[in-house]
Prior knowledge:
Layout: H1 2-35, H2 37-72, E1 73-81, E2 100-102, E3 121-125, E4 140-144, E5 152-156, E6 166-175, E7 186-189, E8 205-209, E9 229-234
Parallel strand pairs: 3-8
Antiparallel strand pairs: 1-2, 1-3, 1-4, 5-9, 6-7, 6-8, 6-9
Amino acid sequence: xxxxxxxxxxxxxxxxxxxxxxxxxxxxxxxxxxxxxxxxxxxxxxxxxxxxxxxxxxxxxxxxxxxxxxxxxxxxxxxxxxxxxxxxxxxxxxxxxxxxxxxxxxxxxxxxxxxxxxxxxxxxxxxxxxxxxxxxxxxxxxxxxxxxxxxxxxxxxxxxxxxxxxxxxxxxxxxxxxxxxxxxxxxxxxxxxxxxxxxxxxxxxxxxxxxxxxxxxxxxxxxxxxxxxxxxxxx
Length: 235
Protein backbone atom coordinates (compact mmCIF):
# COMPACT_ATOMS: atom_id res chain seq x y z
CA UNK A 1 0.00 0.00 0.00
CA UNK A 2 2.75 2.38 1.03
CA UNK A 3 4.64 1.36 -2.08
CA UNK A 4 1.63 2.14 -4.26
CA UNK A 5 1.19 5.58 -2.62
CA UNK A 6 4.86 6.43 -3.14
CA UNK A 7 4.62 5.34 -6.77
CA UNK A 8 1.56 7.54 -7.34
CA UNK A 9 3.31 10.52 -5.72
CA UNK A 10 6.34 9.96 -7.94
CA UNK A 11 4.20 9.98 -11.10
CA UNK A 12 2.33 13.07 -9.94
CA UNK A 13 5.57 14.94 -9.30
CA UNK A 14 7.00 13.80 -12.62
CA UNK A 15 3.91 14.91 -14.55
CA UNK A 16 3.93 18.26 -12.72
CA UNK A 17 7.58 18.75 -13.66
CA UNK A 18 6.90 17.94 -17.30
CA UNK A 19 3.87 20.26 -17.38
CA UNK A 20 5.76 23.17 -15.88
CA UNK A 21 8.70 22.44 -18.09
CA UNK A 22 6.39 22.42 -21.11
CA UNK A 23 5.04 25.91 -20.26
CA UNK A 24 8.59 27.11 -19.78
CA UNK A 25 9.55 25.81 -23.20
CA UNK A 26 6.59 27.55 -24.89
CA UNK A 27 7.38 30.81 -23.10
CA UNK A 28 11.04 30.58 -24.13
CA UNK A 29 9.97 29.95 -27.74
CA UNK A 30 7.81 33.06 -27.66
CA UNK A 31 10.68 35.12 -26.32
CA UNK A 32 12.94 33.77 -29.04
CA UNK A 33 10.45 34.79 -31.72
CA UNK A 34 9.77 38.27 -30.36
CA UNK A 35 12.94 39.29 -28.56
CA UNK A 36 15.73 37.22 -30.04
CA UNK A 37 18.86 39.46 -29.95
CA UNK A 38 20.19 37.76 -33.07
CA UNK A 39 17.01 38.58 -35.02
CA UNK A 40 17.00 42.18 -33.81
CA UNK A 41 20.69 42.54 -34.57
CA UNK A 42 20.21 41.22 -38.09
CA UNK A 43 17.37 43.66 -38.71
CA UNK A 44 19.39 46.60 -37.38
CA UNK A 45 22.33 45.61 -39.56
CA UNK A 46 20.08 45.50 -42.63
CA UNK A 47 18.61 48.90 -41.77
CA UNK A 48 22.06 50.43 -41.27
CA UNK A 49 23.15 49.03 -44.62
CA UNK A 50 20.09 50.50 -46.35
CA UNK A 51 20.59 53.90 -44.70
CA UNK A 52 24.25 53.94 -45.75
CA UNK A 53 23.23 53.08 -49.31
CA UNK A 54 20.65 55.89 -49.40
CA UNK A 55 23.15 58.37 -47.94
CA UNK A 56 25.68 57.41 -50.60
CA UNK A 57 23.10 57.88 -53.36
CA UNK A 58 22.06 61.26 -51.95
CA UNK A 59 25.69 62.40 -51.75
CA UNK A 60 26.22 61.30 -55.34
CA UNK A 61 23.20 63.28 -56.53
CA UNK A 62 24.30 66.37 -54.60
CA UNK A 63 27.76 66.08 -56.12
CA UNK A 64 26.31 65.78 -59.62
CA UNK A 65 24.08 68.79 -59.01
CA UNK A 66 26.95 70.88 -57.64
CA UNK A 67 29.21 69.93 -60.54
CA UNK A 68 26.52 70.76 -63.07
CA UNK A 69 25.94 74.19 -61.53
CA UNK A 70 29.66 74.94 -61.47
CA UNK A 71 30.15 74.06 -65.11
CA UNK A 72 27.15 75.92 -66.57
CA UNK A 73 27.72 79.27 -64.85
CA UNK A 74 29.12 81.76 -67.37
CA UNK A 75 28.77 85.16 -65.64
CA UNK A 76 28.37 85.74 -61.93
CA UNK A 77 28.50 89.14 -60.23
CA UNK A 78 26.78 92.53 -60.70
CA UNK A 79 23.24 93.29 -61.88
CA UNK A 80 23.30 96.69 -63.61
CA UNK A 81 21.23 99.01 -65.79
CA UNK A 82 20.28 102.63 -66.41
CA UNK A 83 19.57 105.03 -63.56
CA UNK A 84 16.05 105.01 -62.17
CA UNK A 85 15.69 108.68 -63.18
CA UNK A 86 17.69 111.20 -65.22
CA UNK A 87 20.28 112.88 -62.98
CA UNK A 88 20.01 116.22 -64.83
CA UNK A 89 16.27 116.47 -65.43
CA UNK A 90 13.72 114.25 -63.68
CA UNK A 91 11.34 114.85 -66.58
CA UNK A 92 13.57 112.77 -68.86
CA UNK A 93 12.78 109.07 -68.73
CA UNK A 94 14.76 107.72 -71.66
CA UNK A 95 17.51 105.14 -71.72
CA UNK A 96 17.56 101.34 -71.89
CA UNK A 97 15.04 99.34 -69.92
CA UNK A 98 16.81 95.98 -69.76
CA UNK A 99 19.04 94.72 -66.96
CA UNK A 100 22.56 93.42 -67.61
CA UNK A 101 24.72 90.97 -65.67
CA UNK A 102 28.26 92.38 -65.47
CA UNK A 103 31.25 90.10 -64.76
CA UNK A 104 33.64 90.70 -61.88
CA UNK A 105 36.66 90.70 -64.21
CA UNK A 106 35.91 93.45 -66.77
CA UNK A 107 38.40 94.49 -69.43
CA UNK A 108 38.52 98.30 -69.14
CA UNK A 109 39.21 100.50 -72.17
CA UNK A 110 41.81 103.28 -72.04
CA UNK A 111 39.42 105.85 -73.54
CA UNK A 112 37.94 108.35 -71.08
CA UNK A 113 34.17 108.78 -71.27
CA UNK A 114 33.06 112.28 -70.32
CA UNK A 115 29.54 112.39 -71.70
CA UNK A 116 26.22 112.01 -69.91
CA UNK A 117 24.50 110.07 -72.67
CA UNK A 118 24.28 106.66 -71.05
CA UNK A 119 25.69 105.09 -67.92
CA UNK A 120 25.47 101.74 -66.19
CA UNK A 121 24.50 101.76 -62.53
CA UNK A 122 24.48 98.99 -60.01
CA UNK A 123 21.15 97.50 -58.94
CA UNK A 124 19.55 97.68 -55.50
CA UNK A 125 16.62 95.98 -53.81
CA UNK A 126 13.99 98.44 -52.59
CA UNK A 127 12.11 97.54 -49.38
CA UNK A 128 12.40 94.33 -47.37
CA UNK A 129 9.84 92.26 -49.26
CA UNK A 130 12.54 90.32 -51.10
CA UNK A 131 14.21 89.08 -47.93
CA UNK A 132 15.26 89.97 -44.40
CA UNK A 133 16.97 93.39 -44.39
CA UNK A 134 17.14 93.41 -48.19
CA UNK A 135 16.30 97.12 -48.50
CA UNK A 136 19.14 99.01 -50.28
CA UNK A 137 21.28 95.87 -50.60
CA UNK A 138 23.18 95.66 -53.89
CA UNK A 139 21.87 92.95 -56.20
CA UNK A 140 24.09 90.21 -57.65
CA UNK A 141 23.25 88.17 -60.74
CA UNK A 142 24.17 84.98 -62.53
CA UNK A 143 23.88 83.86 -66.15
CA UNK A 144 23.80 80.11 -66.73
CA UNK A 145 23.81 77.74 -69.66
CA UNK A 146 21.49 74.79 -69.17
CA UNK A 147 23.07 71.45 -70.01
CA UNK A 148 20.05 69.34 -69.14
CA UNK A 149 17.30 71.43 -70.77
CA UNK A 150 16.62 73.09 -74.10
CA UNK A 151 14.09 75.68 -72.89
CA UNK A 152 13.69 77.90 -69.84
CA UNK A 153 10.55 79.85 -69.03
CA UNK A 154 9.72 82.50 -66.42
CA UNK A 155 6.06 82.28 -65.44
CA UNK A 156 4.70 85.36 -63.60
CA UNK A 157 1.90 84.79 -61.11
CA UNK A 158 2.93 81.26 -60.12
CA UNK A 159 5.32 79.66 -57.65
CA UNK A 160 5.18 76.15 -59.12
CA UNK A 161 5.78 74.77 -62.60
CA UNK A 162 3.19 73.14 -64.81
CA UNK A 163 3.28 69.39 -65.37
CA UNK A 164 6.23 68.27 -67.47
CA UNK A 165 8.45 71.21 -66.46
CA UNK A 166 11.31 71.21 -63.95
CA UNK A 167 11.54 73.81 -61.19
CA UNK A 168 14.70 75.94 -61.25
CA UNK A 169 13.73 78.51 -58.64
CA UNK A 170 10.76 80.52 -57.38
CA UNK A 171 10.47 84.00 -55.90
CA UNK A 172 8.85 87.41 -56.35
CA UNK A 173 8.27 89.35 -59.56
CA UNK A 174 10.26 92.61 -59.60
CA UNK A 175 10.62 95.70 -61.78
CA UNK A 176 11.40 99.40 -61.56
CA UNK A 177 9.00 101.90 -60.02
CA UNK A 178 6.11 102.90 -62.30
CA UNK A 179 6.91 106.63 -61.94
CA UNK A 180 10.55 106.26 -62.96
CA UNK A 181 12.39 105.24 -66.12
CA UNK A 182 11.20 102.16 -68.06
CA UNK A 183 12.41 98.85 -66.69
CA UNK A 184 12.16 95.13 -67.23
CA UNK A 185 10.42 92.41 -65.23
CA UNK A 186 12.68 89.97 -63.43
CA UNK A 187 12.04 86.97 -61.20
CA UNK A 188 14.04 87.51 -58.01
CA UNK A 189 14.93 84.33 -56.13
CA UNK A 190 12.96 83.77 -52.93
CA UNK A 191 16.29 83.33 -51.12
CA UNK A 192 18.10 86.43 -52.43
CA UNK A 193 21.82 86.98 -52.08
CA UNK A 194 23.55 90.32 -51.59
CA UNK A 195 26.85 91.77 -52.77
CA UNK A 196 29.18 92.07 -49.76
CA UNK A 197 29.47 95.59 -48.31
CA UNK A 198 26.73 96.81 -50.63
CA UNK A 199 24.07 97.86 -48.14
CA UNK A 200 24.52 101.65 -48.57
CA UNK A 201 21.59 103.56 -50.08
CA UNK A 202 23.22 104.75 -53.32
CA UNK A 203 20.23 104.06 -55.56
CA UNK A 204 20.98 103.54 -59.27
CA UNK A 205 19.10 100.73 -61.01
CA UNK A 206 16.28 99.96 -58.56
CA UNK A 207 13.94 97.00 -58.19
CA UNK A 208 10.55 96.95 -56.47
CA UNK A 209 8.14 94.09 -55.82
CA UNK A 210 5.33 93.93 -58.41
CA UNK A 211 1.68 93.73 -57.36
CA UNK A 212 -1.67 93.18 -59.10
CA UNK A 213 -4.19 95.92 -59.92
CA UNK A 214 -7.73 94.86 -60.74
CA UNK A 215 -9.61 96.44 -63.62
CA UNK A 216 -8.42 95.40 -67.05
CA UNK A 217 -6.77 92.55 -65.15
CA UNK A 218 -9.62 90.21 -64.11
CA UNK A 219 -10.10 89.58 -60.39
CA UNK A 220 -10.59 86.73 -59.74
CA UNK A 221 -8.47 84.83 -60.57
CA UNK A 222 -6.09 87.63 -59.57
CA UNK A 223 -6.38 89.72 -56.40
CA UNK A 224 -5.98 93.47 -55.94
CA UNK A 225 -2.81 94.71 -54.21
CA UNK A 226 -1.23 91.28 -53.72
CA UNK A 227 2.46 90.68 -54.42
CA UNK A 228 3.08 88.62 -57.55
CA UNK A 229 4.94 85.32 -57.34
CA UNK A 230 7.12 84.07 -60.17
CA UNK A 231 8.80 80.81 -61.08
CA UNK A 232 11.53 79.81 -63.51
CA UNK A 233 11.03 76.41 -65.13
CA UNK A 234 13.02 74.33 -67.60
CA UNK A 235 12.28 71.52 -70.01
